[in-house]
Amino acid sequence: PILYSYFRSSCSWRVRIALALKGISYDLVPVNLLKDGGQQFSAEFKAVNPMQQVPVLKIDGITLSQSLAIIHYLEDTRPNPRLLPQDPKKRAKVRMIADHIVSGIQPLQNLSILKKMGEKKTEWAQNCIASGFQALEQILQHTSGRYCVGDEVSMADLCLVPQVSNAERFKVDMGPYPTITRINKALLELEAFKVSHPSRQPDTPAELRA
Which NCBIfam families has this protein been placed in (predicted)? Predict the structure, then answer.
């Protein structure tokens, strides 16, 4: 497998966690979203992904973009360890939380949007994340055990940790979100979350390395 990734991309991080949890080794092709005006806009990369976004995973003779589509494929083809519970109600909760983050929070504060916000980008990102986290905190109070849904790591957790990292980068006050904070701390103790961390990637700049 070949993963096109950017060390700081939260969408790429989700996929790196899934690959680590499932023990899938891969070659990494860094795509720097800032360098050269954004390497994702090159003709070469556009041929890989017309949306000009990371991550992209080449695996089993197919090319997949969109982090959740990639994770679903890995789940369908390499089901151990399971990232979606077998119980339909728990499975729906996992998907709900994942979608809440992937559709309702992250796109509003990603690079392409922030570029358009100019000087207000930090304030914009903080507001988008805070409003999303207010809802997420309430949801997790009903669904969580050790992790987002019960005591098993799921797709929801793969989305949560990178989003909390974004929140910290934009200096969002995490005080009002004790459940999110607790779950994030527990997940960051797991090896798959450590090895996939933005501070430990081949393309991580020296000053940001762990």
Answer: maiA
How far apart (Å, rounded) are the C-alpha atoms in residues 60 and 65? 14
Q: What pLDDT was estimated at residue 110?
A: 83
Residues found in the chain: 210
- The β-bridge partners of 28 are 3
* Beta bridge partner(s), residue 150: 144
- Shared domain for 75 and 95, answered yes or no, is no
Encode pLDDT of 131-168 as tens digits.
Answer: 999 999 999 999 999 999 999 999 999 999 999 999 99
The encoded tokens of residue 138 equal 């309430």
Residues 53 and 134 occupy one common structural domain = no
Last residue of a domain, one of 47, 81, 115: 81
The sheet with strand 62-65 has its strands ordered as 27-30, 2-5, 56-59, 62-65
Taking CB atoms within 8 Å and a gap of at least 24, the contacts of 72-78 are 74/18, 74/19, 74/22, 74/24, 75/155, 78/22, 78/24
